[in-house]
Amino acid sequence: MKVLVTGASGRVGANMVRRLTAAGAEVRAMIPPGDPQAPKLAAFPQVQVVEADLGDQAAINVACKGVTHIVHLAAQLMRGDTPVDRFYDINAFGTLRLLEGAVQCGNRLERFVLTSSDGTYRPGAPPAVPLTEDVPQLPGDYYGTGKLIGEIVLRNHAVQYDIPFSIVRFATVVSPEEAAKIFRVDFWRTMLGWHRLGKDCHLWPLFDGHPELAPMYEAAVADAAPDTAVGLAGPGGEPWTLSLVDVRDAVDGVYRALTEPGALGRAFNIAAAEPTPHDEGAAVIADLFEVPKLMVELPIRHQLELSIDNANRHLGFRPRHDYRDMVESGLAMTGTDSEFIPANATSGVAATWQPR
Question: Which part of the chain is the NAD-dependent epimerase/dehydratase domain (predicted)?
Answer without folding.
Answer: 3-271
